[in-house]
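Write out the bound-state structure for BGN.
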Amino acid sequence: MVSIQSKWRYLFMFLGIQLVVMALLSREGYQKRVTYFIRIFRKPDASGFSGRNHSAAGINGGDVYANLSHLSKAHIHADEMPYCPKKSPFVRGPIHVSFPSGLTLAQVQKKNPLVVRGGRYRPPDCEARHRTAIIIPHRHREHHLKFLLYYLHPFLQRQQLSYGIYVIHQAGNYTFNRAKLMNVGFREAMREEDWDCLFFHDVDLIPEDDRNTYVCDANPKHAAIAMDKFGYKLPYKMYFGGVSALSPLHYLKMNGFPNNYWGWGGEDDDIGIRVSLAGMYISRPSLKVGRYKMIKHKLDKGNDVNPKRFNMLAKTRQTWKLDGMNTAEYEIISRQYLPLYTNITVFIGTEAGLHAAPPPPLKPAGKAEAEPAAKPVAEVPANIQAKGPAEPAAKLKEGPSEE
Ligand code: BGN
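---
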């Protein structure tokens, strides 16, 4: 017969084994499953917000618009305005992100009644502690931009920021240059307002947790640390792609971003190297908070893999002071203050310079071989030389999904 004492012993052993298994599971990739079970047994959060945001925030994330109607009710005179609290009461944590096919820009506009011309916003009932500009390099990605705007506006409002959204649209068909567009965005945004932080943001990345605050740290911040496409982990230690945040001081200290990475890849690594060459560190939010969902898409036309990136990266130490913000040449074609963002269309030239004939196209490498090669423009487009209203700028098309 088993004595009572040995029954206890078995029970303790059983519990002990369970604890060890739980601890092992919670290390590495199993955290999600364990927290899922923990949440089932935890009491629901008792903090005043209701609706879907309240019940679903734990597992799938809440509706990013859930509590924003509170904002429009305040009517305070500007001179009586207190500073916003250090921690916004509207921040709720995980956000549910999906991509419904019927979304229109008009709907996004209607859901954001406090956003004004040019995609600007300030909290209606308190003085924001931070002024953040969002810089989005763009071409042919109207469909993604629509979703980004749908999520980003309420996301930033929840954080009680004063903010502006800038879309930097590359004119013409020559190979895309993400980093140079960022340089344009930096200069043009700073020309308009004394922003204290700039978020350099890919158009297809949607933040999934509003505790990922869009304010700058003491060092340049890499915000998109956990993307779904990389299994919500950093793909490699020095990764600096997707979404990053720099103060104007950080930006100038590292001479901005390189202007000569045409096509896909490497420019973000160059920027990461610049951070350390300029004597700074990369700061990051936690993996739990710096989560992003990428809108799925095929490789872009006009953004073939850049075969020169390895050689260029090997030389960053020699080139970062010679190429960057101090040498960024471009021509602004138009600046439109649209209801949800400021649209800056810019001509950034080609590898040969702003107005020189471009070099013959290189054979694209890797995956891009399957894609039609980017067609370089034979010369600077006539409409751009004339500095006219040029090609239609990145005005969003309404309507169903293009993919
Ligand atoms: C890296 C790319 C980055 C890109 C990430 C994630 C290069 C340079 C060669 C070492 N870097 O490999 O630009 O953001 O993958 O996709 O290709």
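---
The first helix runs from residue 4 to 26.
The longest strand covers residues 162-170.
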